[in-house]
Amino acid sequence: MDGSFELWNIESGNIIGAFDTASEALAVVRHLLDAYGDSYASELTLGRRDGDSPATIVGEGDELIAMIERPPAEAERDPVTATRVG
């Protein structure tokens, strides 16, 4: 895939990480929410960056919670592009 997914803490303005797939980024979101509680999602935003183009927001806050709570059958697909992963 050409591009990356960036997970940001919008409260602090710091990038948490850049990932090759949305699934990798959402695994980190899941870990953070397990550690700090679902309210922490309000501080997070997930963006997709393709090359030098500005990032496009994929999800933030409650949208991220919904993305990580999708049924396992849907989890086999990239939650953004709907393409099969793995």
Descriptive overview:
A 4-stranded antiparallel β-sheet has the order 2-1-3-4, with helices on one face. Helix 1 crosses helix 2. It is globular and about 35 Å long. The protein is of the alpha+beta class and 86 residues long. It has 3 helices and 4 strands, in the order E-E-H-E-E-H-H. The chain has one domain.
In total, the number of strands is 4
Number of helices: 3
Distance between the termini: 13 Å
Round the mean pLDDT to the nearest integer and report it.
85
Helical percentage: 25-40%
Structurally, the number of domains stands at: 1
Share in β-strands? 25-35%
Q: Class by helix and strand content?
A: alpha+beta
Descriptive labels:
27% strand; globular; alpha+beta; 86 residues
Could you outline the blueprint of secondary structure elements for this entry?
Layout: E1 4-9, E2 14-19, H1 22-36, E3 44-49, E4 56-60, H2 62-68, H3 72-75
Helix pairs in contact: 1-2
How would you summarize this macromolecular structure in one to three sentences?
With 86 residues, the chain is of the alpha+beta class.
